[in-house]
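[PROTEIN RECORD]
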Amino acid sequence: MSDQPAEPQPVLSVCIVNWNTRADLERCLTSLHQCGCSEPFEIIVVDNASTDGSAELIEQRFPQVRLIPNRENSGFAHANNQAILASYGEFVFLLNPDTVVQPCSLSALVAFLRAHPRAAAVGPKVVNPDGSIQYSARSFPRFRTGLMRLFPRSRAVRQYLLSDWDHNSARQVDWLSGAALCMRRDALAQIGLLDERFYIYCEDVDWCYRAKQEGWEIWFTPEAVITHFRAGSTNQRVAAMVWAFHRSMRQFYWKHYPRGVPWPLRWLPPLGIHLRALSVLAHVGYDALRHLWHRFSRGRAAHG
């Protein structure tokens, strides 16, 4: 028998899905080990066939992290489910690799869920690198939200984003971003894993929706703070990710909302979603062309 003391059972399981974000992942894992969590926790990284040395980084610098390497990019929902199924904690924390966990934030999430037994999930305050708020806790998209997405300052969109709220107080919300979402395992056992039909995006909306349907609460707390650098993976394929996001929004709508809506009106929200997708893609294309023109212009100037 070994004289070494057994490792304590983790209270919290941190689940990270990584795809070609080695530098972000290194910063995230470093912040986790420096965050001063008072509870035993484990870290599980599912690597979706990265080619940038992410897996080697974990093996060499973070041997205490459990690595699950995939041979192909299986999508965000599937990879998170892999991590969840391999985890042991009473609470499961989905975390993007392009984040930095601020001191004591993990402890604050665990303490909040213990103090609120009807909370299926809690999310931290998520901020940009400059300290400004990211709208990571939102209302469910409603019928009119899809229609009004082309008008970001409209009342319907502000209510959806909760952008008129200062995010300085704990409150119940409808859903939380999967970039930083802490779920109680008891709730997870009731509502099930992430729906893998959502390859990426809206799996978090669907998860929280199912929890609310079962009578659970979804909460936000400002006591935990995560800095999110945003789109570490998705920036590698901007146009594809823009289309994937809006496709998932449409998929969520068709899964949960059409019942009871007269059939001619059922197509209006998906139409609004598609029009917004085309608008965003046009903007992305314009920015890309402008960037190429500036590079071309500078090249011509440099060569006289």
Notes: Residues 1-5, 232-236, 288-304 have pLDDT under 50 and may be disordered.
